[in-house]
Amino acid sequence: MKVSVVLFTSDLRVHDHPPLRAALAAGDHVVPLFVRDDGIAAAGFAAPNREAFLRDCLADLDAALRARGGRLVLRSGDVADEVRAVAAQARADEVHVAAGESAYARSREERLRTALARDGRRLRVHEAVSTVVPPGAVTPSSGSGHFAVFTPYFRHWSRVRLRDPLPAPRTVRVPAGIDSAPLPPRAGVRGLSAGLPVGGEKAGRRRVSAWLRNGVMAYEDTHDDLPGDATSRLSAHLHFGTVSPTELVHRVREVGGPGAEGFVRQLCWRDFHRQVLAARPETASADYRPRRDRWRGEAPAGEEIRAWQEGRTGFPIVDAAMRQLLHEGWMHNRGRLLTASFLTKTLYVDWRVGARHFLAWLVDGDVANNQLNWQWAAGTGTDTRPNRVLNPVRQALRYDPNGAYVRRWVPELAALDGPSVHEPWKLPPEERAHYDYPDPIVDLAEGRDRFLRARDQRI
Ligand SMILES: Cc1cc2nc3c(=O)[nH]c(=O)nc-3n(C[C@H](O)[C@H](O)[C@H](O)COP(=O)(O)OP(=O)(O)OC[C@H]3O[C@@H](n4cnc5c(N)ncnc54)[C@H](O)[C@@H]3O)c2cc1C
Question: Which Gene3D superfamilies does the UniProt record give (predicted)?
Answer without folding.
Answer: 1.25.40.80, DNA Cyclobutane Dipyrimidine Photolyase, subunit A, domain 3, HUPs
